[in-house]
Design brief:
Rossmann fold, nine-stranded mixed β-sheet, binds adenosine-5'-diphosphate, 18 helices, 19% strand, alpha/beta
């Protein structure tokens, strides 16, 4: 099958979160299944610098763009996946984060930027980009690609469309004036299309008008149909429930492998679990923590936003620090207020709390390898990748029972522990008491010799969260989407 995979980020070209991980590894897994998958991304400076042997392909029709748009082509690093970069002068050639400027605010022309991206990607999908390739199916991801399904519906013969929601709370919503300025077809201003409570939403276009819609875990697929997590789109998602599926993300086993990870101090596997502690020692040394192997080290990596529940970690910090021999490492950036509070925490508990504010890929690997426990008290979590990395690295996750966290972590109840099935600690309520209840259980198990900590960690390491099974599931859905597209004529 010829598949165009459209995304606003993909490892190693650009990453701000899980979308980048997925877009860098799912196409590779699909290619291994024999599909002709090609990736299209905006030509950010970092992406241009990172693709080897990039070649110009000529211009592509994107009428909204202020200057002629061209395509650059290469291969996704270390793979045989062709990648096309959409070069739109003045729109993507800005350094740093793809969505926000240096002041931390969304670029004011984001609607135009990603509308142009959708136009150019649609030209490729429709076979008009001059290199003799036309997609059978477009797999579009998140709001930045939400106009592709509506644009493709205007084609006399179109590829099938599958749209994946990686996080429903980022919707690409803009006002009427922006809609008019983009000169989009007036028929799109409709509750059945892009119109959304008096504004218009890119995300809604993808959900309402794609042949199939997926999200990144079965539980999140159910949660987003409920009013409290539906972000105003639960009605539409219920309406499209027969076209909505939840498929768990995998992780890239080549990049996240404790037996070969170049970013960690000591390689280890389930059979040599005890070697893992050397990574704790390195992490403690690197971040200025007391070097005590008997300390129980809790870690967290993530965007500092309300969703991730970092405030809950801060709320239980005094209790955690009142316990003997506990330490905490936090890696993240985002909300300036949370960043300041994390710095204060370091000052309050020197040698026991360490924070690295910023985005640091190698350090994120060392935190995974060096921590004993990984905290993920997310209020909601579409899939979550860090708990999957944690499982693979024998770092026991402590998670709120929501979305992909609920689908991937098995709670250490006495019964599950005895049966060897448990892989982490799960709590019901995203509040300080809930989190503290789970941390307390983790502390008890850790401190009780012979109670099964190592068995719990190793059970997680033995689970399979590679992409293979999920890629096969997408393959099945692509076939279903093509059936719907053919039936729609
Ligand atoms: P989300 O997509 O909501 O940010 P995910 O758990 O799906 O959450 O994916 C987050 C990805 O980004 C993970 O690979 C995580 O390790 C990475 N990440 C987030 N913040 C940082 C950071 N400060 N430094 C390094 N990696 C980070």
């Amino acid at each position: 099958m010829k598949i165009l995979f459209a995304s606003s980020e993909a490892v190693p070209l650009m990453k701000t979160g899980g979308l980048g991980d997925v877009s860098g590894s799912l196409p590779v897994a699909l290619r291994q299944l024999g599909h002709d998958v090609r990736l299209v991304l905006p030509a950010y400076p970092d992406a241009v610098a990172r693709v080897n042997d990039l070649e110009p392909l000529g211009t592509v029709h994107a009428p909204l763009a202020p200057a002629p748009v061209s395509l650059l082509a290469g291969l996704l690093n270390g793979s045989t996946v062709p990648v096309y970069l959409v070069h739109a002068p003045g729109l993507f050639d800005r350094p740093g984060n793809p969505y926000v400027g240096p002041d931390g605010r969304d670029w004011s022309d984001n609607a135009l930027r990603f509308a142009v991206f959708c136009q150019a990607a649609t030209e490729i999908a429709a076979g008009r980009s001059g290199f003799g390739w036309r997609a059978d199916l477009v797999h579009a991801n998140d709001w930045q690609t939400g106009l592709m399904a509506p644009l493709l519906l205007q084609e006399p013969e179109r590829p099938a469309t599958l749209f994946t929601i990686h996080n429903l709370s980022y919707q690409g919503t803009f006002d009427r004036a922006t809609f008019d300025a983009l000169d989009l077809p007036p028929a799109w201003w409709s509750p059945d299309a892009l119109e959304f409570w008096g504004a218009f939403s890119f995300l809604k276009g993808g959900i309402a008008l794609s042949d199939l819609v997926t999200t990144v875990s079965p539980t999140y697929a159910w949660e987003i149909r409920q009013p409290h997590l539906g972000c105003g789109l639960d009605g539409l998602l219920n309406h499209r429930a027969d076209r909505l599926y939840g498929i768990l993300n995998g992780i890239d086993y080549a990049l996240w492998d404790p037996t070969s990870d170049p970013a960690i101090a000591q390689h280890y596997e389930a059979e040599s679990f005890r070697l893992k502690r050397r990574n704790k020692s390195r992490l403690q040394q690197q971040l200025g923590l007391e070097r005590r192997s008997e300390s129980m080290l809790f870690g967290h990596v993530g965007r500092l936003v309300e969703q991730k529940g970092v405030d809950l970690i801060l709320a239980v910090l005094p209790q955690l620090m009142a316990e003997p021999d506990t330490q905490l490492v936090m890696l993240g950036s985002g909300d300036r207020g949370l960043e300041a509070k994390l710095r204060e925490a370091v000052a309050s508990y020197p040698g026991r709390v360490a924070t690295h504010i910023g985005y640091d890929e190698p350090l994120s690997h060392l935190v995974e390898a060096g921590s004993d426990c990984f905290l993920m008290p997310s209020r909601f979590e579409p899939c979550g990748l860090n708990q999957l990395f944690s499982l693979r690295y024998g770092t026991v996750p402590v998670v709120h029972r929501t979305g992909g966290l609920a689908d991937t972590v098995i709670d250490a109840t006495p019964g599950n522990l005895q049966a060897g099935k448990a892989t982490g600690f799960v709590f019901e309520h995203a509040d300080p008491n809930g989190l503290w209840w789970a941390i307390g259980r983790a502390l008890d198990l850790w401190r009780t010799p012979g109670a099964g900590w190592e068995g719990l960690a190793v059970a997680g390491m033995r689970q399979d969260h590679s992409w293979q099974a999920s890629a096969r599931r997408y393959e099945e859905l692509y076939a279903i989407a093509r059936g719907y597209a053919a039936a729609a004529g």
